[in-house]
Design brief:
The protein has 587 residues and is of the alpha/beta class. It has 20 helices and 24 strands. It has three domains: 36-107 and 538-587, Roll (Urease, subunit C, domain 1); 124-249, Diaminopimelate Epimerase, Chain A, domain 1 (Roll), CATH 3.10.310.70; 253-535, Metal-dependent hydrolases (TIM Barrel, Alpha-Beta Barrel). Strands 8-15-16-17-18-19-20-21 form an eight-stranded parallel sheet. A six-stranded mixed sheet has the order 3-2-7-22-23-24, with helices on one face. Strands 9-10-11-12-14-13 form a six-stranded mixed sheet, sandwiched between helices. α3 packs across α9 and α12 crosses α13. The structure holds zinc ion.
Length: 587
């Protein structure tokens, strides 16, 4: 086995993204089908004013006001109000667009995802819980894929989950995957990303033998009784497999990003946070810049720099806070305090169910503190990944100490912020720390959390949107794509229902359900504030950028469990239509 420099790349991915980005790509199936672009509205002309009227417009302004018309000029909103009010302001030369009673909201924001990672892992096919209830069904599907494959094809899958998918057996070994294909390499990344399985062909390509030692960095190769690798890969043993996958090496990042960006537009996303820019490769910032300029990447990006490259950022590049423009801007710096709860690497106050382990600190309180002080003095906002209540203790303590020492800590935010104990709520409030929730955790892993990982009481402390609203702590929602690929409206639905995927009808901690208004703010106005951009996006108010979505129905009034199914009809960024639903009639 030869470990090349790419192993560093993948270990960076595992370590810096922490939640297990690797671990669970594309949780929701069939999202690809939504991506077809059909943009039919002509580009705006200079000095042209357009009035969109006959709509229900949820402005998401401070008063949560509703209006009926907006006017845009160039890339800016210039008027909001009733049709008569707007026309009075802009005159009667404006181009009039009848929205036929549809619903308009500010363009949606995903407050935390990974642009390059989401593109790269999209080449693995999802065989997880949302597509297959059992491991056997997933395997049956993989066999069909194998039967239709051609010589030399790579058969790559992700999200297999022994934690949530029912199964007669509890491991995916090479002999099982050889039935998918004996001649082509087969690779399955399990949900959570810390475990994978390979078939015999793949083992051969990786050069694994009886005498291959387990990785020194942690983890192991599963072996049969005679010592032969059996296809199971644990921890850092996943890396040599990833390195040997040719489609990753030849992956066209530009094409991949263009595709995911088009899918995001179809779900109404107009702005995204890249949580850890250049986690994979040093040139990512330049890549994002290039794709933003040439239009391949349609969303506005607010970037949080990945650690480990400070020499590049602050030395060679001389990057200052707010480097960039309204389209692509660096606003902060991201660190990770622990791993992920579903992989039992989130750092807890108390041990996980059925063991002694309290998880894994990726950084000590002291290291978090040092980062806060150093980056805050440079003027960067801090985004700090914390999943377990123990890691969140460390973050709270570090922010508190920095503030005590007179450091101006700019809008500190906790990423995922999964398990929050009652005593931590007031500390967050007192220290002005906001949170961004990976709300898909509730839907997909809520059942595993309450039955296997934490037990009922602690599982109910997951993603506490209800408590945050009562205490008055701002929160946003995020997909952490590719960890989940929920759309903004699906995230809103999860926050307001908290219904578990594996236990239909079961609501995890009913008192933690979000109010619709607040969940909607979590993908618009609060998210904009949290990413230092409330002066330009997040609400429909005069002077802000003309980013908005046209929806088929009103998320405030549809049945609560169908919010996620509301059709996005149009998406507009900078006053230009970037997405239009195929079946929509021409205006
Ligand atoms: Zn992340």
């Amino acid at each position: 086995m030869k470990i090349t420099s790419r192993s560093k790349l993948w270990s960076r991915l595992v370590v810096t993204l922490g939640t297990g980005l690797l671990l669970s790509a594309c949780v929701v199936a069939d999202r690809n089908m939504a991506a077809k672009q059909d943009v039919s509205f002509p580009p705006s002309q200079p000095d042209e004013i357009r009035v969109f009227y006959n709509a229900t417009i949820l402005t998401m302004d401070e008063a949560f006001s509703t209006s009926q018309a907006i006017a845009i000029e160039g890339n800016k909103l210039i008027a909001v109000g009733s049709k008569a009010e707007v026309l009075e302001q802009v005159g009667d030369e404006a181009i009039m667009i009848d929205l036929q009673k549809k619903v308009v909201l500010p363009g949606f924001i995903d407050a935390h995802l990974h642009i390059v990672g989401a593109a790269q892992l999209s080449i693995l096919e999802d065989v997880g819980l949302t597509r297959f209830r059992t491991v056997e069904e997933a395997l049956e599907h993989m066999k069909q894929v194998g039967q239709n494959s051609r010589p030399g094809d790579w058969l790559l899958f992700t999200n297999l989950d022994f934690g949530t998918q029912v199964s007669q057996f509890n491991e995916m070994t090479a002999d099982r995957l050889d039935k998918v294909s004996a001649d082509n390499p087969v690779f399955v990344l399990h949900a959570g990303g810390h475990v994978a399985s390979a078939n015999s062909k793949m083992i051969e390509l990786m050069g694994l033998t009886k005498s291959t030692p387990d990785p020194e960095t942690g983890g192991k190769f599963g072996r049969s009784a005679d010592g032969q690798p059996n296809g199971e890969l644990y921890g850092f043993a996943v890396l040599p497999a990833l390195e040997s996958i040719e489609p990753f090496q030849n992956f066209d990042r530009e094409k991949g990003i263009k595709e995911v960006s088009a899918q995001w537009s179809a779900s109404g996303l107009t702005s995204i946070v890249d949580a850890g820019t250049a986690a994979l490769k040093a040139d990512e910032l330049d890549l994002l810049k290039k794709l933003t300029i040439n239009g391949s990447l349609q969303q506005r990006i607010r970037a949080y720099l990945s650690p480990g490259r400070d020499d590049l950022w602050f030395g060679k590049r001389g990057i200052k806070p707010n480097y960039g423009d309204a389209k692509l801007r660096i606003v902060g710096y991201k660190v990770s305090a622990d791993g992920s709860n579903q992989a039992r690497t989130g750092l807890q106050r108390d041990p996980y169910l059925g063991g002694e382990s309290k998880g894994l600190p990726y950084m000590s309180e002291e290291q978090i503190f040092d980062n806060i002080v150093e980056k805050s003095k440079l003027g960067f906002q801090m985004a700090m990944h914390g999943n377990g209540d123990g890691a969140i203790d460390n973050i709270i303590s570090a922010v508190g100490r920095a503030k005590q020492q007179g450091v101006t800590v700019i809008r500190p935010r906790i990423e995922h912020c999964s398990i929050i104990q009652d005593d931590q709520l007031q500390e967050l409030k007192d220290l002005d720390i906001s949170c961004s929730f990976l709300i898909g955790h509730v839907r997909l892993w809520g059942s595993a959390f309450r039955k296997d990982i934490f037990g009922q009481e602690k599982a109910e402390k997951l993603d506490r949107t209800g408590s945050f609203e009562r205490v008055g702590i701002p929160y946003s929602l995020h997909s952490d794509a590719s960890v989940t690929t929920f759309t903004p409206l699906e995230m809103v639905e999860i926050a307001v229902t908290r219904e578990l995927f594996s236990e239909p009808g079961y609501i995890l901690a009913p008192s933690e359900r979000a109010a619709r208004e607040m969940a909607l703010r979590g993908v618009t106005s609060t998210a904009a504030w949290q990413m230092m951009s409330e002066h330009e996006i997040g609400s429909l108010e005069p002077g802000k950028l003309a980013d908005f979505v046209v929806l088929e129905e009103n998320p405030l009034t549809v049945k609560v469990d169908s919010i996620g199914e509301i059709k996005v009809l149009e998406t507009w960024i900078d006053g230009e239509q970037v997405y239009r639903e195929n079946s929509r009639e021409t205006n």
